[in-house]
Specification:
The chain has about 220 residues and is of the alpha/beta class. It has two domains: about 5-35 and about 105-215, Diaminopimelate Epimerase, Chain A, domain 1, CATH 3.10.310; about 40-105, no CATH class. The chain is built from eight helices and four strands, in the order αβααααββαααβ. Strands 3-2-1-4 form a four-stranded mixed β-sheet, with helices on both faces. The relative contact order is 0.22.
């Protein structure tokens, strides 16, 4: 899924952050990245499985086919060619079809990669840099279909970790339905409502301390 947003979509996301922050002291930072890791192991796993599968197919054909049309397949170079081509095809398909790559990566590895990348974004984007430590990172990693919501100290003092579940699931569904921009807008609105409900109220002189623009990263 390409990380392309129209000017109208970017404007709607920014306006959603503006509105959510208007009634709270929270500083919402939306961040979206194509992928949180290269996952080379998934490519090699696919190549190996396809190569072994091709070899098994060759053995079956050798047992059931008695004609001369596939005589080349009975040679060592023929077997090696089939295995190599199958492995290469598996690698290419895995590299360019996200759903295949995602299926070949263990869930635990996905979770660790995304969390590590979210923590890095929290620091790089200086989400901690607000007067009352009320920054919130909404981190979306497209390839993995995973979302992390990281709150700073001032937010975590008022909002429980379980409170973010609805927001996370809302964005995940939007990614699956290929409506990322709209899903993010709605999630930001839910975030604003949650902060109001939890009493993260604005001060009278509450400044806008962090940019309300969507941060877009091409991935690792």
């Amino acid at each position: 899924m390409p990380l392309h947003f129209s000017e109208a979509e970017l404007s709607r996301i920014k306006e959603a952050v503006d509105a959510a922050e208007a009634g709270t002291s929270g500083e919402i930072v939306p961040f979206i990245i194509k992928n949180s890791g290269r996952y080379g192991e998934a490519v090699w796993r696919a190549a190996s499985v396809c190569a072994v599968g091709a070899l098994l197919l060759v053995l079956i054909i050798q047992q059931v086919y008695e004609g001369w049309g596939l005589a080349w397949m009975y040679t060592s170079w023929g077997v090696a060619l089939v295995a190599t081509m199958a492995g290469a095809l598996g690698a290419v398909v895995t590299e360019y079809i996200p759903a295949v790559k995602r299926a070949l990566i263990p869930e635990g590895l996905l979770a660790r990669k995304v969390h590590r990348r979210a923590m890095q974004a929290f620091v790089v984007e200086e989400v901690f840099n607000s007067r009352d430590r009320t920054g919130i990172l909404i981190f979306i990693s497209i390839l993995e279909h995973r979302i992390e919501v990281l709150g700073d100290e001032g937010i975590n003092a008022e909002v429980e970790e379980e409170d973010w579940i609805e927001i996370v699931e809302h964005i995940r569904l939007a990614i699956r339905e290929d409506r990322v921009a709209q899903g993010l807008v709605e999630a930001i609105e839910l975030c604003g409502a949650l902060l109001k409900k939890r009493g993260v109220d604005p001060r009278g002189d509450d400044p806008n301390e962090l940019s309300n623009e969507l941060r877009i990263h091409p991935g690792d």
